[in-house]
Every structure is written in C-alpha cells, then in structure tokens.
Amino acid sequence: MPASGQSRFGRRRLARSLAVAATGVAVVALPLFGATGAAAATTTSTTASATAYPDNLDGWIRESLDVMAQHGIPGSYESIHRNIMRESSGNPAAINLWDSNAAKGTPSKGLLQVIDPTFQAYHVPGTAFDPFDPVANITAACNYAADRYGSIDNVFGAY
C-alpha cells in the first residue's frame, strides 16, 4: 500500500467518485436585449449524487453490479463472489503464469482471471481499461459470461 494510506485502486475510485460528483450542470442565460447585469440572469444548478463504494471486494462487486445494471448485463452478487473466490481468492493483482493461456503468452489476470483479448473484447464503457482494475475486470468477465453462458450465474467452474 502506498505511503498515503490509500491502495492503488482507492485513488482511482476516489477520482471516479469526484468525476461523478463534479458533473453538476450550471446554466446562465442572459437576455440579448433589455435588462442587463446579474439581476437579469437565470441560474439553474443540478448536482449528481455519487455512490461511495468501499475499496474492498464487497465494494468492487457492488459497484460492478451497478455498472452491469446500467448496461443490461445479468449477474448476482453471490455468483460473482463465488467465481472470484475460485479464480483469485479475491486478489485483484492475481496473475496466472502457469496455465495454457500463460504458455501462449496471454496470462489470466485480476479477480476473475481474464485474458487480455477477452478483456478488450468485453470491456464495459465507463470502467477503466485495465484488467487489474477490480470493477473493470468484474464487469468485463460478467459481460463475457453473459454472452457465452447467459450469465455469470451459470458459471460454476473455469470458463
């Protein structure tokens, strides 16, 4: 963990939360003719609410489920958790350097052990383009599982 006390993924999550929180829109309209100055301005302001997720396995799964819901990708907390525990024991930095994928030069990476070509093909917009990012890894893997098996809920072994 860096000296700042925040994990590598915590900084990204904070940046993601700040980006969402900073999407409020302010519109100022001044008439072209007639009244002038601040008294004539109409101001409308809206603020987006940001959901804070803990920087741990529970938070990563919950954030992934929210992203998946926005993109129509099926899956349940229980199935995602079950598959993560089998594939990486919850370690987002896990990398498999010994299986057939690794022997071909494309090791499986991250929480759900996704290889780079699969991650690239099934990456979900709005997540980091990094297979070691927990939320990006989960959502890409669940997107792949939905395409191949109907849902991550139908995956009970290596996939």
Strand content: 5-15%
Structural class: mainly alpha
Give me the strand/helix succession: HEEHHEHEHH
Rg over C-alpha atoms, rounded to the nearest angstrom = 21 Å
Total DSSP E strands: 4
Low-confidence stretches: 1-8, 10-48
Distance between the termini: 31 Å
Percent helix range: 40-55%
CATH topology of the largest domain: Lysozyme
Number of domains: 2
Quickly name the level 1 CATH class of the largest domain: Mainly Alpha
- General form: globular
Signal peptide: 1-40
Keywords: Signal
Protein name: Transglycosylase SLT domain-containing protein
Pfam family, one: SLT
Q: What would you note in describing this structure?
A:
- Keywords: Signal.
- This is Transglycosylase SLT domain-containing protein.
- It holds the Pfam family SLT.
- It is a single chain.
- The protein has 159 residues and is mainly alpha-helical.
- The chain folds into two domains: 39 residues, no CATH class; 98 residues, Lysozyme (Orthogonal Bundle), CATH 1.10.530.
- Helices cover 42% and strands 9% of the residues.
- The protein has six helices and four strands; from the N terminus they run H-E-E-H-H-E-H-E-H-H.
- Strands 1-2 form a two-stranded antiparallel sheet. A two-stranded antiparallel ribbon has the order 3-4.
- Helix 5 crosses helix 6.
- It is globular, with a radius of gyration of 21 Å.
- The protein starts with 7 loop residues before the first helix and ends in a 10-residue tail after the last helix.
